[in-house]
Amino acid sequence: MTFIAIVTFILGLCVGSFLNVCIYRIPLEKSIVSPPSSCPGCGNRLKAIDMIPVLSYILLKGKCRNCKAPISIQYPLVELVTGIVWLVTFLRYGLSIETLMLIFLFTILIPVFLIDLVHMIIPNGLVITGLIGGAVFYLYHLFIKPISLYDSSHWSTPLIGMVSSSGILFLVALLSFVIYKNDGGMGMGDVKIFLPIGLILGWKLSLLTLFASIMFGGITSIVLLILRIKDRKSAIPFGPFIVLATFVCGMFGYNILNWYLGML
Length: 264
Fold this sequence. Notes:
By secondary structure, the chain is mainly α. Helices cover about 70% and strands about 0% of the residues. The chain has eight helices and no strands. Helix 1 runs parallel beside helix 4 (about 95-120), helix 4 packs across helix 8 (about 240-264) and helix 5 (about 125-145) crosses helix 7.
């Protein structure tokens, strides 16, 4: 088990390196597979030794080998966070289909977090990738073995999760558009990303995720207003709160639900 955990962590680091490419290129509408990675400063093509997750950043002291331009701390952080997320998910669910499902979902959502935070968009490509993966797990659930993450063997559970969570947020987005018109408000990207989230988590956890993301977003917005970092007209990306809520509920959702129901 320890060996598998180490391998999982290392694989997560490597995937995190690829996610950095996605985070940089997708908003620019560039291919994520070609050309090979290069320094944004001098354009020098990176060698294998320059792309060892986390370690290369440390050995190069955060600078390009060729032009000595500073390398953003985002690169090792994304690699490290991805590795930790993969490891924690494996430690939580073991060697199982549930681990594979959540690792896939969290991996899709890591670039969503940063792209929406910086560019205020959630790319359709990430949503579609999530839906394709979610459909594969759904077919596994139907024809091979029921997935415990859904908390039900019924065929409709993932579909209800997808429609209900995304549908509720769609109504919120419509109301937001009526109130704010084109000046702020909730975007359709937030609505669409809940399609794969609902399909993979099922209706119980996806609705809990929706509630948690609204709570996280609301509390953060209040704090930013109190500190005068943002004002009432400032646009605040909702995607990062969706990502955080998905991780919390994917990992501990049923514990939270059981705790809440036990208090009633």
